[in-house]
Design a protein that fits this description.
Blueprint lengths: L3 E4 L3 H15 L3 H18 L14 E5 L4 E7 L3 E9 L10
Parallel strand pairs: 1-4
Antiparallel strand pairs: 2-3, 3-4
């Protein structure tokens, strides 16, 4: 059963930046990243316990995106999943936390 997905407003600027940057690198790559994100969000909604907890900071679970250098951080309860952040793996750790 898919859980209700909720998204922190903080995620959208990072999503937009990722899509635009990858599109600038190669035509069509931005659409590939957008499709990857959609699939990852769907998978998290289906199997939120599948991915591990982050080893630092608040108790967020983390889903690594490959082949792009991003991690999705989220929290889940029995009814819903909140996507908290999309973070680039080469930036300062925790830069995305409020």
């Amino acid at each position: 059963m898919t859980r209700e997905l909720r998204f922190s407003a903080r995620i959208w600027p990072e999503v937009a930046d990722a899509i635009v940057w990858h599109e600038e690198q190669r035509a069509g790559r931005g659409a590939e990243v957008a499709t990857l994100l959609e699939r990852v969000f769907e998978e998290i909604g289906l199997w939120p316990e599948r991915w591990p907890f982050s080893t630092s900071g608040p108790p967020y679970r983390r889903r690594v995106l490959l082949p792009v250098p991003y991690v999705v951080f989220y929290v889940a309860d029995e009814n819903s999943v909140e996507i908290v952040a999309l973070a680039h793996t080469s930036r300062r750790p925790g830069y995305w936390m409020p």
